[in-house]
Amino acid sequence: MQKIISGQLVNYEVIGKGKDLLILHGWGGSLVEWQTIAESLSLRYRVWRLDFSGFGGSPKPSSDWSIYEYVDFVNEFLKEFNIKNPVVMGHSFGGRVALFLKAQKLILVDAAGIEFKSLKARVFGLAADYFRWVPQNIKNIFRSPDYRSAGNMRKIFVKVINQNLTKEMTEVKCPTLIIWGEKDRVLPITQAKKIKELIYDSVIRVVWGADHWPHLSKPKEFLDILNEYI
Questions:
Q1: Residue 127, C-beta contacts closer than 8 angstroms, at least 6 positions apart
Q2: Domains along the chain?
Q3: Can you give the pTM of this predicted structure?
Q4: Cα–Cα distance measured from residue 32 to residue 215, given in angstroms and rounded to the nearest whole number
Q5: Dihedral Cα 218, 173, 199, 176, nearest 10 deg
Q6: How far apart are CA 138 and CA 141, in angstroms?
Q7: How far apart are CA 41 and CA 16, in angstroms?
Q8: What secondary structure, in 3-state letters, does the chain show?
Q9: Of 124, 96, 123, which Cα lies nearest the Cα of 110?
Q10: Which pLDDT score, from 0 to 100, does residue 163 have?
Q11: How many whole angstroms separate alpha carbon 20 and alpha carbon 35?
């Protein structure tokens, strides 16, 4: 399904009946990757999924959005469908957006928001000032896969990842479940521990053997955790 909200076309799906639950996908993802999880949760919830602007079936925004424009857009989406105080689940980049929403419960899945750089990126950053002559294609080798594949979304990507949301995490007021893939190589599990320290009413559950996408790599184990919590 598609709808124009605040002048922006959005692709979305809704299934099930009951209390509202909103799923926000990660950078480079789409609502499609959450189909299996949504179908299971729809037995108890009205499950909403949307493609962020620039992903899936939703076109790129007309300007280079920061996290705040994405938050404003999702809030307009919620208003359009009269969705109030839903359970909100955000994966990776979607976790950034979820932090700002008014939620009954919050579920952060391998969520971004705390500044993190790999050893390779830190070393390259320290050396960058001394090697300005290095060609851009060589520099990109040291950047993240998301950066290299961002294409015309690259400026948005840079804006988003440069926004440290530790302060916003301390301001979360609702019960929060932090789910993390044990073998996440994108955002290591140490990030989950830092988030728990920042969000007062929060718990961590680990999906053993899962990567950065536990809903895809270990869907049954992921659902078992969700079903205990919501």
A1: none
A2: 2-229 (3.40.50.1820)
A3: 0.88
A4: 12
A5: -20
A6: 5
A7: 8
A8: CEEEECCEEEEEEEECCCEEEEEECCCCCCHHHHHHHHHHHCCCEEEEEECCCCCCCCCCCCCCCCHHHHHHHHHHHHHHCCCCCCEEEEECHHHHHHCCCCCCEEEEECCCCCCCCCHHHHHHHHHHCCCCCCCHHHHHHHCCHHHHCCHHHHHHHHHHHCCCCHHHHHCCCCCEEEEEECCCCCCCCHHHHHHHHHCCCEEEEEECCCCCCHHHHCHHHHHHHHHHHC
A9: 96
A10: 86
A11: 16
Do residues 72 and 25 touch, judged by C-beta distance below 8 A? no
pLDDT digits (tens, 9 = 90+) for 11-39: 999 999 999 999 999 999 999 999 999 99
Residue type, 200: Y
The 10s digit of each residue's pLDDT in 46-88 is: 999 999 999 999 999 989 999 999 999 999 999 999 999 999 9
Cα(203)–Cα(32) distance, rounded to whole angstroms?
27
Tokens 């804006």 belong to residue: 159
